[in-house]
Amino acid sequence: MTRVLDPQRLPAGRIIAVSTVLLTVGVVLAGLLLANVAHPPFQGPDEGWAGWMASLRSPFWDGINAFLNLAGYRGVLVLHGLLVVALLLRRRPQAAVFGAAAGITVLILTQILKAGILRDRPANTIVLTDTGSFPSGHVATTTAFVLVVAILAGRAWVWVLAAAGVLAMMASRTYLSAHWLTDTVGSVCMAVPVVFLLWLFYRDICIQENGDARRLLTWRARASRRRRATAPPESGLR
Predict the structure, then answer these.
(1) pLDDT band at 233, cuts 50/70/90?
(2) Could you tell me the pTM of the whole model?
(3) Peptide bond into 135 cis (omega under 30)
(4) Whose CA, among 11, 109, 131, 166, lies 20 to 30 Å from 22?
(5) Which pLDDT band, with edges at 50, 70 and 90, does 10 fall under?
(6) Which three-class secondary structure string do you get for 154-194?
């Protein structure tokens, strides 16, 4: 895991700027829903998007999105838990705490917002759902997981895959009529700032932790090579 992980420092100013913009959008969406949850000003575009996504349904896409429905919440939570365990086993306790804190905080905030806003879901949903449409739990937990992985891995291609995963989950939830489009947007606007702001707190210690692990691995590898080089050759005589 030492070679896999390369946690990125990420400039604090950029993190705060992105988080502020996303939080502002999320707060505006939530505020408009609280003001008129039955008929928010964006209900028309939401219904238009939902109708278009429903027109795309086919057996093939139904199967793909049925899988994403299962994988996007419970599956992601399991993967997030396994990531935390793997970090602990590889002696990255601070990275593990960061990952756990990000996942748990996003999950709790999602449920609080759902219960507080209680937006009705689309009427033609084709999967089982609970109460409260805003925000999407599938999108929020997926965003938290892939963003934690991208930050800790620190590679451009992981960031690209993370963005693609979030967009795919957003499309899937609206394809299944489990959420309105703005529900999925609100999820991203909540989850990304939570993970980013937590990373600001854990960033330096996680980077130091990973650097120490790299040096330890290098020292052990060199020591192992020295032992093999100085070991007496085994005699073929018995």
Answers:
(1) low
(2) 0.86
(3) yes
(4) 131
(5) confident
(6) CCHHHHHHHHHHHHHHHHHHHHCCCCCHHHHHHHHHHHHHH
Residue 219: pLDDT over 70: no
Q: Which amino acid is at 67?
A: F
Distance of alpha carbon 31 from alpha carbon 235, whole angstroms: 80
Q: Is the distance from CB of 73 to CB of 138 less than 8 angstroms?
A: yes
Burial of 56 (0-12, 13-18, 19+ CB in 10 A): exposed
- Read off the DSSP letter of residue 3: T
Handedness of CA 193, 194, 196, 198 (dihedral sign): positive
Please give the full DSSP string across 11-65, using - where no structure is assigned.
-HHHHHHHHHHHHHHHHHHHHHHHH-SSS-TTHHHHHHHHHHHHHT--HHHHHHH
pLDDT at 238 over 50: no
- Residue 18 and residue 189: Cα distance in Å, rounded? 10
